[in-house]
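#onboarding

Welcome to the new folks! Below is a worked example of what a typical request in this channel looks like: someone posts a single protein sequence, and someone else replies with the predicted structure as tokens. Don't worry about understanding the tokens yet, we'll cover that in week two.

Example request:
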Amino acid sequence: MIERHPDNVAAALVGGFIASYLLDEDDQVKKPVDKLSKTERMQREREEKAVAANSSVSIPPENISQSVRLGCSPKIKAVAIIPEFELATSKARAALPKTYAPKDVVFNLQRLAVLTTALGSETPDPWLIHGAMGDKVHQPYRMHLIPGLPEILATLNPDNTPGLLGICLSGAGPTILALAVSNFDEIAAKIQALFAKQPNGGVATGYKLLDIVSDGATCVQQS
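Example response:
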């Protein structure tokens, strides 16, 4: 509710490859008491008692979003290359235009429709995914904030980088996200080398190899 988009928290809570959207405030309906499970009723009672005891406490909103789990090949891993500098999200957001050309929005929507299906294929198609990760909505406007990003996006592809499926700026940046099925360390090394070649001594980076985790948030009871 703070950022008005549930994509990060939905994936963290549910796990896996998740698509989600936030409902308009007019569509957010509080679940009637007679429709609540026993656990939900107990939770609501605890929340209402907390509010009654302290007026500064607010009850979390209900029914604010919808989400669906999409298919993702178990062969795919994420290589996150992390530059050793900070980029404020507010600065990255400020770089975006207030309006977009319809053709650029259509460009992204077309590729999004392909990408959500292509990632679920048992044997991922590298060039299909690489093309579907193309973008005209945010990366072109943030190139100047991340030294090396133009070269990384323009030069690395499945032909010259075996195992690579696609590559993009992760959220507002500056982390670079590469999806791959093999040669993970080699892919990271190529991206890091491009960062290191940047002017004024290059950009130092680290990287992490990440699995696509399907468990989501879990509660662990310790004895």
